[in-house]
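Dear colleague,

Thank you for sharing your sequence with our group. We've completed the structure prediction you requested, and as agreed, I am returning the results in plain text so they can be pasted directly into your records. Please verify that the sequence below matches your submission; if there's any discrepancy, let me know and we will rerun it promptly.
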Amino acid sequence: MKKTIGKSAFLFKTIAIAVMILLMLMPLLFVEDIIYDRYKYKEEAVSKITDSWGKQVILAAPVLNIPYRYNDVVEVRRDDKIAKEISVKTGYAKYAPEDLSVDVNVSSQIRYIGIFEVPVFTADITMSGSFEKLANVEAESRFEGAFISLELKDLKGISEPVLIWNGTPQKFEPSNEGEPLVLRPIDISQYERENSYISYEGVKLGALNSKIDFKNNGGKFELKFSIKGSESISFVPLAKTNSFHMTSDWANPNFSGAFLPDSKNITDKGFEASWDINYLSSAVPPRFDRKDLSQAQFQTSFLIPVDNYRSAERAVKYGKLFIALTFIICFVFEITSRPIHFIQYLLVGFAMVIFYTLLISISEFINFSLAYLVAAIAVVGLITAYAKFGIAKDLSAKNIGVVALSLSFLYGYLYILLQLQDMALLYGSIGLFAALALIMYMTRNINWYEERE
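Please find the predicted structure tokens below.
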């Protein structure tokens, strides 16, 4: 007669297994901390490259700046009395082009630091268009001081821009004249927002200025320059009519922001995309000094296709459920076959936790899918061998095969969930339903009220 657990022992074992499942959440939290620390370490490594090469590019250009004078009332204290004085100050009105055509050619490359790879790029940009005669200008406008500004988040990686204004070459120089634009970067994922050192508040753009002969008579321009950057490039469509065309050898772009491309073609050799935007859809007024233009930005990101840290984080979130299912399967095996000691439960649980540390460490050196396969084979092999030589030495080859096949199915199912995005909840729910149905089927002949010895 097989030794089985009695009624009181059965209740105690059930409670104990529930407690062990809760205890296994602690090492899983430890694994989540490891993923966070590795991601943070990667961010530090990435910043070393981007700080020297060039960071995310946010570009607003070209902008026509017209200085004007205005009276400012200030309060001054004299002989313990407050008096008001009028001082003459200089303001800068910012005007958008009438039309703007932008051609961008992005050449990408991968830079390495330690075990991490960072995509960087060099963008060759040509802008052309015109400014029309301005209406409703300030009464004290000084057209003789007008200048064109090229406003960017990071000036470090820019080459010397060349401006052709009404057929005459002009030079740019750094300048503090005018109020810089302040833009917010495009929204990013919650994981990056929580685990990144990048500030996602407003970004004050730096400016290069070029004096021009304007006199409120309009003018045509052509602007050429190159800029180095990393991760993404963003534009603000300032003109009444905007046409953007971008080509690149990067095969995995991500388009986001206020406007998606009107047309795009993505191949394994690169991509081509075009945007046509008018001022009614961008809501950028002809004059926009002290205006927030963040809502009009659009962005193209150059990202590594698979982020092993995000995938590993998703896997750990499913880990709690998978450990619980494994313990339930072991418990069903126990009540239908032979006893399993508490320590054996814990050893199996720790083996499943070690799967995630293997996954994240191996995926730093090889493709995530291959790393997942290696880690899964190692853990499935370990648990199967332990079931044969540690838990039940007399198990038949058929039963051992069932154990190995069940664990393989479990990890294969987890991998499928990691590859899914929109359908993950549906397939996860179906999988849980199927697992519950299987457990009910396996325990269908058990008399839970029967006293066993």
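Summary note from our side: The longest strand covers residues 57-78.

Kind regards,
the structure core
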